[in-house]
Amino acid sequence: DLMIATHALNVLIGVGPDEQLLEVWPSANFQSVFSLPCNLAIDLLARRPDVVASGWRIEAAAKQIGAAKADFYPRVNLMAFAGLESLHFSNLFKGSSKMGGLEPAIYLPIFTAGRLKASLREKAAAFNEAVYDYNNLLLHAAVEVANQIISLKATKENLCKQKKVVELANKHYRLFQWRSEIGIDNELTVLQQEDKFLVQAYQLASLQQSHLLSVVNLLKALGGGYREYE
Q1: Average pLDDT for residues 98-104, to the nearest whole number?
Q2: Whole-number Å distance between alpha carbons of 215 and 151
C-alpha cells in the first residue's frame, strides 16, 4: 500500500506519519536510458559511508598504538616535586627530603614492561584487524559496483530490445484494427492482437522497473553517484 510505504519513509527520516514527505511527488521518466561513463574511478568508493567509517576506525586504532608506545616513556610529575625539600638528584630519594607528597614524582616503566608490551601488541592487533576489515570492505564494494554495472548493462540491452518488440506488437494491433474496420477481420482477432500487445507492454514496464532499480543500486554502491569529467 502506498500510504504504508509513505509512513515507513517518514519513520526512517524521523518525522510523524501525518507529515508531508514531499511537496511535489516525483514522476518516473522512461524517455532516456541511463548511460554509464567511459571510466569509473575506484576513488568514488571513498565516499561511501561504510568505507569512511572504516577509515576512521583505522585512524583511531593507529592513535591507540601511539598512546600505547607513549606508556613506555618515563614520566616525571613536577607538581609532585613540590612535596620535596630539594630537587637535587643526590637528595631526591632520601627520606629527609620528603614533605608528605602522596603521588609518585617519577614513573619508571621498567617495572611494568610486560604489561605495556602486551597492551602494545593488543593495540597493534586491533590496528591490523581494522586494516583487514577496511581492505575487505573495499574489495566487496568493488565487487558490488562491478555486479551492478553488469546488471545495468543487461537491463539496458533487454530494455532496448523489448521496446522494439512493443513497437512491432503495436503495429500489428493497429493493422488488425484497420482490417477490422474494413471488414477483413472480426473483433475477436483484434482483441487477441491487443492482448499480445498488452503482454509485451507489461514486460516492457517490468524491464523499466528492473533498469531503474539497477540504476539506484549502482548509485548506492558508488556512495551516491558519480560525475563524469571531460
Answers
A1: 47
A2: 9
